[in-house]
Design goal:
Chain lengths: 229, 262
């Protein structure tokens, strides 16, 4: 299973390396998101008596929104490359463990989301500029949240794979499911920037439980999702 | 339950599918019971029971709002169980049960959100507040709209049913996580929810229980009818498939009358 997962992940990353869709299209889209948030919430906007601008105050939430929207595109891409020519069937016929396919695709997409987060995080920090409190909490939050988005996203992207309405339906399915992750990541990041750090810990636990649940369900259910008849 | 044993007032004739409707003795009894329960609830909820000390007249919404959301949960629960059985047994029956239950539960969920907003106006002064329950119910509503959309995906029926079943299970698990996370999120800011200090007297409680009965019976009535409609649709698809097969076979014969390929 692990061997299959590594194979699938390598395959997906090799495709990304040669096509550069995440790097050349999805990443700029994420940065564009941050810019648009800046336009919507003017950088000069400040609550009377508040120390920070509204933009600075809500920066953690905006960062995670940009990550979510970019991740949705990366997830769509992850299954778009399997949709043509009955490749999902081919994977089955090659005797590759469905759980391995799930883990492999999750890992490949997680790595891409992580890279998106690093660049988008730096961009958001430069553009919205909140002072960093706890780097440790921030890094942990980013790592756990990446796993959560990748696992749940891969499971849900598989549900719509091969359908003509995939592009419109996949976000409708994934975004509500990721509600707890968005809430948790935003509040944990908020704690990492503005403190106190201890406020972030319960949210990290929640996202970790979420991740475990979806990795478990994904490994069990992927066989049912991939069967083509 | 095997698929072939179900007969619900229809027959397959040469002209296709003729049906006498989806009613039966059971649904007629249920229908009458539902009407009586609704009538009684209107009487008790709006007339016999009085206003409440804190909520005033708005308390009457409680008698439909809470039964409605409980019925929605019941429906999503049925979808969960039916989805699990479908994945184990693969019989169309349970797939259709799961879909029918979810559809009606979504309807009750919409009604819950609507009555919640109507209640919010006199109680909070606004139609929408980031109340934990209101927020998580809305997320649940959107999640199951997605489930219903998956049931209409342009895929091979068995593939679609299987994916919907996985979704029917995961969605329910996720409702629990969403509920806790939103509760937690709002818990940082406020505590107030519906009916914290509400004191219900005997007649009020009775109106509420009447609501529970009425909504459950209406739900059962709708579910049976909805299931039967799905079942007929399913039969129609099979009948069309058979017809198409006969036609294709006829094309393969010389005189076009026998069903055998010559």
């Amino acid at each position: 299973m692990i061997r299959d997962a590594v194979l699938i992940a390598k395959k997906d990353l090799r495709i990304e390396f040669s096509t550069r869709v995440t790097l050349a299209q999805i990443l700029p889209f994420g940065i564009l998101n941050l810019l648009l948030y800046g336009f919507a919430l003017s950088p000069d906007l400040k609550v009377v008596g508040a120390e920070r601008s509204v933009l600075e105050q809500v920066a953690p939430g905006l960062f995670w929104l940009a990550v979510l929207f970019a991740a949705i595109m990366a997830l769509g891409r992850s299954f778009a490359i399997e949709a043509a020519d009955g490749k999902l069937d081919a994977l089955q016929m090659a005797g590759i463990d469905p759980a391995g396919v799930f883990l492999g695709k999750t890992a490949a997409v997680a790595l891409q989301i992580f890279l998106l987060e690093v660049v988008l995080g730096l961009a958001a920090w430069v553009m919205f500029g909140p002072p960093l409190g706890s780097a440790m909490l921030l890094v942990t939050t980013v790592l756990i949240t990446t796993a959560a988005i990748a696992a749940a996203g891969t499971l849900y992207a598989a549900v719509t794979a091969g359908s003509r309405v995939r592009d419109t339906l996949a976000p409708l399915l994934v975004l509500p499911v990721l509600t707890p992750v968005l809430l948790g990541a935003t509040l944990a990041t908020d704690a990492a920037f503005f403190g106190p750090t201890s406020d972030g810990t319960p949210w990290l636990l929640l996202i970790a439980v979420f991740t475990l649940l979806f990795v478990g369900v994904g490994m069990m259910a992927f066989g049912s999702l991939l069967e083509e008849s | 339950m095997t698929d072939t044993k179900l007969e619900i007032g229809h027959e397959l004739s040469s002209g296709g599918l003729t049906t006498t409707g989806t009613g039966s003795k059971v649904t007629k009894v249920l229908g009458v019971a539902a009407l009586v329960a609704i009538g009684l609830q209107l009487l008790f909820g709006l007339y016999y029971s009085g206003p409440e000390v804190v909520q005033g007249e708005a308390v009457r919404l409680f008698y439909v709002h809470v039964p409605s959301v409980l019925t929605a949960y019941l429906g999503f629960g049925i979808t969960l169980v039916a989805s699990i059985i479908y994945l184990r047994k693969g019989s169309q029956f349970w797939d259709l049960v799961a879909g029918s239950a979810a559809e009606i539960a979504v309807l009750f969920c919409a009604f819950t959100l609507f009555t919640g907003a109507v209640w919010g106006k006199p109680t909070w002064g606004v139609y929408w507040q980031w109340d934990p329950r209101l927020t998580s119910t809305t997320v649940m509503f959107v999640m199951y709209l997605g489930y219903l959309a998956v049931r209409r995906l342009d895929l091979e029926p068995r593939v679609r049913s299987r994916r919907a079943a996985v979704l029917g299970i995961v969605s329910f698990l996720n409702v629990i996580i969403v509920h806790y996370s939103v509760d937690w999120w709002r818990g940082l800011h406020q505590q107030a929810t519906f009916g914290v200090d509400t004191k219900l007297d005997g007649l009020m409680l009775f109106s509420f229980f009447l609501g529970l009965v009425a909504f459950t019976v209406v739900f059962a009535w709708l579910l049976i009818h909805r299931f039967r409609v799905s079942w007929l649709e399913h039969q129609l698809r099979l009948a069309r498939l058979d017809e198409a097969l006969v036609e294709r076979r006829a094309e393969g014969t010389i005189d076009g009358t026998t069903g055998a390929i010559s």
